[in-house]
enoyl-CoA hydratase (Mesorhizobium plurifarium), 257 residues
Amino acid sequence: MTYETILVETRGKVGLITLNRPKALNALNSQVLAEVVAAASAFNADPAIGAMVLTGSEKAFAAGADIKEMQALSFADAYSQDFFVGWEELTRTRKPIIAAVAGYALGGGCELAMMCDFIIAGDNAKFGQPEITLGVMPGMGGSQRLTRFVGKSKAMDMCLTGRMMDAAEAERSGLVSRVVPVAELTEEALKAAAKIAEFSLPSVMMTKEAVNRAYETTLAEGLRFERRLFHSLFALDDQKEGMAAFVEKRKPNFTNR
Ligand code: HXC
């Protein structure tokens, strides 16, 4: 597939997707949606890939859903098309995706970053849900995912005032896992993804599934789910290899079997 709004590269076992609509600060339109979802699905299906990084430019990860595309939508259009539900497809990717966020991550941009498994921020990152300033509200998960990341008080503050949160506040409040100098952002995110891609893929995928389950279920059910997955990993060669390598003081050679 040829892409027009994103760049797609492979770095070793890592798939790198870069949003690339610089003139619109990577505003997310239907074409970006289709291309990101297609690229992520292709990496997900590629046995040579163990993890992905989704990034934008130094000025903007993404300044939101494309306001010019949305402007003329009627209620009937938005509802009948289930406008932007397609992004949910990204959350069904089973391999980890790291969002590497520099600059603006606003509205749908912030929501897209939160659909990834974790966010590494450049020190110039600015997160926000400014939809309220446009006469609407978050529509790609902001009211739900932001609340789970940062709690009710801060989520209400962000969604109701539309103010931006800088990288330090985002790290302090648990929205991002780490902040790095913006010049090193892509390399740091690729390094983290490469580290993940070295591990046994089934254990990586089950770990992602289990952590995500924490948002979907009760503690007792979540613990039970985790324990069942944990037990099942003992059926893999990679468990034998990983533990033998530790005991023999050598590096494991995982085969994803
Ligand atoms: C379409 C956008 C855009 C967007 C920026 N641009 N954001 N186009 N949709 N979300 C375009 C501008 O129109 C402009 O194009 C060019 O990108 C550069 O933007 P400027 O505003 O000139 O840049 P700057 O002065 O540096 O300001 C940066 C900014 C500002 C603070 C990020 O662009 C901004 O406030 N953008 C909108 C942010 C926003 O409200 N996002 C939420 C969208 S709603 P031209 O052609 O004029 O040069 C949303 C809903 C999600 O995301 C739910 C969906 C289901």
In short: The mean pLDDT is 97. The longest helix spans residues 30-45.
